[in-house]
Amino acid sequence: MNNSRQIDRHGRLRHFLSIEGLNRKLLTDILDAAESFSGVTEQTVKKVPLLRGKTIVNLFFEASTRTRTTFELAAKRLSADILNINITQSSTVKGETLLDTLRNLEAMHVDMFVVRHADSGAAHFIADHVAPHVSVINAGDGRHAHPTQALLDIFTIRRVKGPDFGRLRVAIVGDIMHSRVARSQIHALNLLNTGEIRIVAPKTLTPAHAESLGVHVFHELRKGIEDADVIIMLRLQRERMQGALLPSEHEYYELFGVTEAKLAAAKPDVTIMHPGPINRGVEMDSEVADGPHSVILAQVTHGIAVRMAVMSMAMHHKESATE
Amino acid sequence: MPAPATMTQKLRLKGGRVIDPANKVDGLLDVYIADDRIAALGDAPDGFDGAHEIDASGCIVCPGLVDLCARVREPGYEHKATIATESVAAAAGGITTLCCPPDTNPVVETPADIELIRLRAEKIGKTRIVTLGALTHGLDGERLSEMAALKNAGCVGVSNALRPLANTLVQRRALEYAATFDLTVFLHPNDHWLSANGCAHEGRVATRLGLPGIPEAAETAAVARDLTLIEQTGIRAHFCHLTTARAVHMVARAQFDGLPVTADVAIPYLYLTEVDISDFDSRCHVIPPLRTTQDRLHLREALKRGTLSAICSDHQPHEADAKLRSFPSTEPGISGLDTLLPLGLRLVDEHVIELDELIHRLTAGPSGILGLPFGSLSVGASADVCIFDPDLTWQLNTDTIRSNGHNTPFMGWEMKGRVTHTLLAGKLVHSLAG
After folding, report:
1. How far is B357 from B348, CA to CA, in rounded Å?
2. Across the interface, do A143 and B211 touch by the CB < 8 Å criterion?
3. Per the CATH hierarchy, to which homologous superfamily does domain B65-370 belong?
4. Where are the beta strands (DSSP E) in B42-188?
5. Contacts of A117 in chain B (CB under 8 A)
6. Is the pLDDT score of B393 beyond 80?
7. CA-to-CA dists, residue B21 to B171, B310, B375, angstroms
8. Where exactly are the structural domains of chain B?
9. Phi–psi pair at A280, nearest 5 degrees
10. ipTM of predicted assembly, 2 dp
11. Who is most buried in B240, B302, B352, B372, counting CB within 10 A?
12. Contact status of A274 with chain B (Cβ, < 8 Å)
């Protein structure tokens, strides 16, 4: 991945498009910044004036509640002005191109775009075409990347398991094929020299040459989560039942759904994660989702601090660019 | 060139190295042209004293290039390019005959459609444009086109271009019906169920970038099915732009078994691979997709062996906006008329193929596939000639590119070898000097 797109010549964040292309130091810097911002989110007055006077646009071409909301909260806690723009497929059909939309918003003196789009590569495309003073944060592009989600997952693992990823075995279970979250998590875990990264999925949901991502591939849950320190479950989209990828939710749950009984194969202190929203009784049963190993709600909380860190760092680039 | 005279026009191409693979000619010879025909090679025939001359010394004189697949976007997509703009680009690239697939708008499915394209091209007079007729009505993949009428109107073959056929029975019937009229069928092997909504080769790069993949099997499954039907129907068929080593192997085997099948390669696939789409470079978004380095190696070998008997440009000019979107939403295709010859010559520099073999794959090879009497310097043949300086270096950039489509990943490349003169039926249609 071309580093110059998201890193400036001083090695600082210019855009935040993918985990790929970051170095370990920058990744750790973001996590450390998130750590300090998590203090802010726990105060009674949950606000710092870091981005006062800045305008951020949540530009969502694909529906989202959780990600959009946490970006919005993060921006507000940094004292920025935030605008939510949801552009459905139908309004782009009216003839305005993606570039026209961008130009119009830029004309309103926007400082940052937080972008979600159904096409892989959309955030890169936008970053290539925005004015020099505008930063782009990727909030999920197609099947390619969801880097802030991966960061908050890493942040959560670091909090629970400590900073030494070398001794961890992490299993990612579910629809790897269509998952931008999994791709970003794998890059982040590799960047931190994680002991072993495993993916667990039926062959229909395993991407071609998956091992080239730097993972071990499993098609059986018990073997895949054996002695795992962390299990990350992925959301299974209902539409996977069409297109002959899976026969039924029932069979998926039987084979890949995590239950208390199946968890016995993992380490006793295993941590269970999920990017949400959960399909209870499909990816995991409620006992696991709400049980002592689950950090699913902590992930959501951490999402705000991580996004504050990324937004303030990418915006800081701009401050110093004019020096 | 001086004004045309009423009497026979005589022209001497002087001092060049003539390479005419169809006639196994390679040597320092003069070429004599009387009106629109080749009159002689070597010694001057009677009556050529004082003929006009083109100095070809230091240059290579070969038959005008024949491009098996180039879209000129007319009718229907004139915002991308027109017959006028692309004729100029073809002439500047030494291409004297180019073949258009039928996927214009409206599609080429009546004698009037064929006539329209031919007449426009003749009026502009820079290059000869021949057309493939639609294999099915409106390319809908379900109803047969009126192939007898298309053939009478002069189409050089039939094709469904990149559009799918509804089912195997339609395909069988279409091939049988085309065979009735001895029409060559041009097939773009692609199993549309397997390629689905893919936009990149299903491999390491697509997995990393999260791009929906097109598996190798989309091509090989189609070739296997097509070969079975070709054998059954006895049709003469041509596979357009193979991209995978396995498909090339299957076609080589079929040729060995005596099946009347030919195949070509489009020049980008001899240079680019899946790696070139990294970082979402939409200029490298092509259908079928760029494959692996292993596939590229096998395509180069098959070109040398002759399994692939033609190189085409697969020219697809676009307006700038067509590529200004996120990768999967961009329109596939590369503008290729400007680079057909120079990229071909690079294969010679890289010792992939000999110069005379290259020229064969760009002239007699494709002309034979189309069943046309072009692509040679035989005495009496149409005087379609390409003269190029093999040592002239130049850069492909927005100033030098002649096509209306600037969508090419080769933009900025240093090219070696440039066309200095192009003759179409004895008429000078391009001169580098101006």
Report:
1. 9
2. yes
3. Metal-dependent hydrolases (3.20.20.140)
4. 52-55, 60-63, 65-67, 95-100, 128-131, 133-134, 158-159, 185-187
5. 326
6. yes
7. 36, 13, 9
8. 65-370
9. -65, 135
10. 0.93
11. B240
12. no
